[in-house]
Amino acid sequence: MMDSRTERRVPGRVKEVTSLSNPIVKDIKALALKKFRDQQHAFMAEGLKLVIDALDSGWKIKTLVFAKAGRGNAAVEKTAARTVAAGGLVLQVSEKVLAAITRRDNPQMVVGVFEQRYLPLKDVEPAGSDVWVALDRVRDPGNLGTIIRTADAVGAKGVILVGDCTDPFSVETVRATMGSIFSVPLARADAETFTAWRRGLSALVAGTHLKGSVDYRSVDYSTKPVLLLMGNEQQGLPGSLAEICDTLVRIPQAGRADSLNLAVATGVMLYEIRRNALPMEGKIDA
Ligand code: SAM
Fold it and tell me: 140 in ligand 1 pocket by Cβ < 6 Å?
């Protein structure tokens, strides 16, 4: 039941909420935990620009939350109208409620709650010059978000999460994607399903491995679609995944570091694979 003292209707099907014990607010706050994200099949994205981008890309909004300060702001009101038109709920909340939802002292003025979305792995059919990234048991939300952002930047087609990965829809990962969560399709599978899918794939499967015998710059990535396979932060690629690769490449290192950070290694690989696909943006004069 709603608390009638803390919720009242304001024009345009917007509910005003000031209590942290409001049940809708509680549900949104619960999205900080994976269990509730999975239950609600939802996640949170912060910032007006992100929410507008998501709506423009066809993501289904469940709830739009905005701070009182957003009232009268044309862009916020337009977004609220789009939310209502899409069947979503609009909440106008106090700064205190917004800070509690986002767990930030200085929260963004707008938060959107969206439906989670995964592409079924069977529908991932790399063709032409497509590049897909597969991540084996990625654990760190910052790494995953950075990889999704980098995949977006280079024009990769999507990211496949293999095995027990960190949740791409956690607040930390979504923040690290800087909005790319809404542009990069995600698929997921356990290692067996992924391996079976890979068997039917007509693509160059390039795994990265510290013991790889091939320099990553010596491979021709232009003959087929590419599936780039990256290993877990602690353990690297297990033998069972290394053996389904067409090639195992290594990025040379000169210093004393054991390895590169996963997201950095993925970035280095993606820029090499997409080297010729990305436009040359002006020459640097000597
Ligand atoms: N201790 C782990 C190991 O032995 O593989 C280190 C894993 S590293 C932090 C995480 C992933 O980044 C690796 O599995 C690989 O995919 C990629 N990576 C990092 N440095 C690399 C390098 N120099 N060459 C190729 N891949 C690298």
Answer: no
